[in-house]
């Protein structure tokens, strides 16, 4: 018999399954609020003008396609470091940060998880409750036991900070704490600057290992403002990990462009840590792909293209904000008794709407509006054409 005869079907990815159902829906009013992708007001994934310009220049130059260094090119990694840590960072000047290009933010988490498993195989990993569903899977696949810490408060639709602190204070020294640096996925609930400062203090006191996941820099308040957590940990003297991604803020999803950065105690330590991270990369995929990273590096190195990118990024951020406010107003205008004003306070692409699984199901059945069964919706899939329709549907199912 076949060597695969006993293989079981793996469970379907809930969000990709949603896409399939959406694609099969014949209604022309259908709306997909399930996926984590930014769409413009016409419902298209934008190709940023700054990226297009960099790509045209690159195509004209027709560069050869040799292998890249295992950790990716210095120009790219330096550009990543400047965005995350700020170009005047003391840590960067001291050589205390190593960065390796990675295959998207997911690849950065994977490299970080594999390296942490070598560094401290006995550590436990803690993720927020709830979190991006791949966090648990990635760290479990690296061999870790993964547990939750309290994060979201469904009552206030904000952060359950007392619960979170209580959980952090129970963790054993050396535990890895995965933190969403900004624009928490799936809830849209972020910590305040003061709360971040407290989290840094607890990590310091208890000897925890922070791992900041930054998938949405620039989608909440701006490039530097959204780096508040990275900057707070940088000032603490702690060692920590940071994964970052250009999928959303450069609209380069399928090019798979991200990076893993590790903050060490000294330049000399950095050299040793980088040598080990390179070993992890070498045995995973040898070295990263060229194209997407080259575009990002070219945009960030050019004064003109960088300014254009910042304007385009601000445009995406402002449009999401406008859709948040617009949804709140449009729901109110239906006479809906339930208050949705919290949607305008949440940040990033997502909102935990509080819609129940049954209400989400009704949205799909009766309106052709697709959302995750947890009630998570992607605000970046709303536009001026579907906003009122979605608001009416939410009002109808919550009546
Ligand atoms: N981390 C979080 C919190 C995310 O939401 C995402 C993407 O949805 C990622 C990481 C992965 O990003 P990438 O698509 O660059 O792998």
Give your account of this protein's structure:
The protein has 399 residues and is α/β, with parallel strands linked by helices. Helices cover 45% and strands 14% of the residues. The protein is built from 15 helices and 13 strands. It has helices at residues 14-23, 49-61, 74-85, 90-93, 104-119, 133-141, 161-168, 193-206, 228-236, 267-284, 291-301, 303-333, 342-345, 357-367, 387-397, and strands at residues 31-32, 97-103, 125-129, 146-150, 152-153, 158-159, 176-180, 209-214, 240-245, 257-263, 350-352, 369-370, 376-378. Strands 2-10-9-8-7-3-4 form a 7-stranded mixed β-sheet, with helices on both faces. Strands 1-12 form a two-stranded parallel sheet. Helix 5 (104-119) packs across helix 6 (133-141). The chain is globular and about 65 Å long. 46% of the residues are buried. It binds pyridoxal-5'-phosphate (PLP). The site of pyridoxal-5'-phosphate has 12 residues, from helix 5.
Summary of the model, kept short:
This protein is of the alpha/beta class. Helices cover 45% and strands 14% of the residues. The site of pyridoxal-5'-phosphate has 12 residues, from helix 5.
End-to-end separation: 56 Å
**Widest β-sheet, arrangement of strands:** 2-10-9-8-7-3-4
Number of strands: 13
Question: What does the radius of gyration come to?
Answer: 21 Å
The major beta sheet can be summarized as: 7 strands, mixed
Could you tell me which ligands this complex binds, including any ions or cofactors? pyridoxal-5'-phosphate
Structural class: alpha/beta
**Which overall shape is indicated by the principal axes computed on the Cα atoms?**
globular
Number of helices: 15
The helix/strand order is HEHHHEHEHEEEHEHEHEEHHHHEHEEH
> Uncertain segments of ≥5 residues (pLDDT<50)?
none
Q: Could you tell me the strand content as a percent range?
A: 5-15%
Provide the helix percentage: 40-55%
Mean pLDDT: 96
InterPro entries: Aminotransferase_I/II_large (IPR004839), Asp_trans (IPR000796), NHTrfase_class1_PyrdxlP-BS (IPR004838), PyrdxlP-dep_Trfase (IPR015424), PyrdxlP-dep_Trfase_major (IPR015421), PyrdxlP-dep_Trfase_small (IPR015422)
Domain Aminotransferase class I/classII large: 29-394
Keywords: Aminotransferase, Pyridoxal phosphate, Transferase
Subunit structure: Homodimer.
């Amino acid at each position: 018999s076949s060597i695969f005869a006993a293989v079981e079907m793996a469970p379907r990815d809930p969000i990709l399954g949603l896409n399939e159902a959406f694609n099969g829906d014949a209604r022309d009013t259908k709306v997909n609020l399930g996926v984590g992708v930014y769409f413009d007001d016409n419902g298209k994934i934008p190709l940023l003008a700054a990226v297009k310009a960099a790509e045209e220049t690159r195509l004209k130059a027709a560069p050869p396609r040799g292998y890249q260094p295992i950790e990716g090119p210095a120009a790219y990694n330096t550009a990543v470091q400047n965005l995350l840590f700020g170009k005047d960072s003391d840590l960067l000047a001291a050589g205390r940060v190593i960065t390796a290009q990675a295959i998207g933010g997911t690849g950065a988490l994977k490299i970080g998880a594999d390296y942490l498993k070598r560094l401290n195989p006995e550590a436990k990993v803690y993720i927020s409750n709830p979190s991006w569903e791949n966090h648990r899977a990635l760290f479990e696949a690296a061999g870790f036991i993964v547990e939750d810490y309290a994060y979201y408060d469904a009552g206030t639709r904000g952060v359950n900070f007392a619960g979170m602190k209580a959980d952090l204070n129970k963790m054993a020294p050396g535990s890895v704490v995965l933190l969403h640096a900004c624009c928490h996925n799936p809830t849209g609930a972020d910590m305040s600057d003061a709360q971040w400062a407290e989290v840094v203090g607890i990590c310091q006191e208890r000897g925890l290992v922070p791992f900041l996941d930054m998938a949405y820099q620039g989608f909440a308040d701006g490039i530097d403002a959204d780096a508040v957590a990275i900057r707070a940990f940088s000032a603490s003297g702690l060692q920590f990990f940071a994964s970052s991604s250009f999928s959303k803020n450069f609209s380069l999803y399928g090019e798979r462009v991200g990076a893993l950065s590790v903050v060490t105690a000294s330049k000399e330590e950095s050299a040793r840590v980088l040598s080990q991270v390179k070993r992890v990369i070498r045995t995973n995929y040898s070295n990263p792909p060229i194209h997407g990273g080259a575009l990002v590096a070219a945009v960030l190195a050019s004064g003109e293209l960088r300014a254009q990118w910042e304007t385009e990024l601000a445009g995406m951020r402002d449009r999401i904000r406008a859709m948040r406010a617009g949804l709140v107003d449009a729901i109110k205008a239906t006479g809906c008794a339930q208050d949705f004003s919290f949607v305008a306070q949440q940040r990033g692409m997502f909102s935990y709407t509080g819609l129940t699984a049954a209400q989400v199901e009704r949205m799909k059945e009766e309106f052709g509006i697709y959302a995750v069964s947890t009630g998570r919706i992607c605000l970046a899939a709303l536009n001026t054409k579907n906003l009122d329709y979605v608001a009416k549907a939410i009002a109808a199912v919550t009546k």
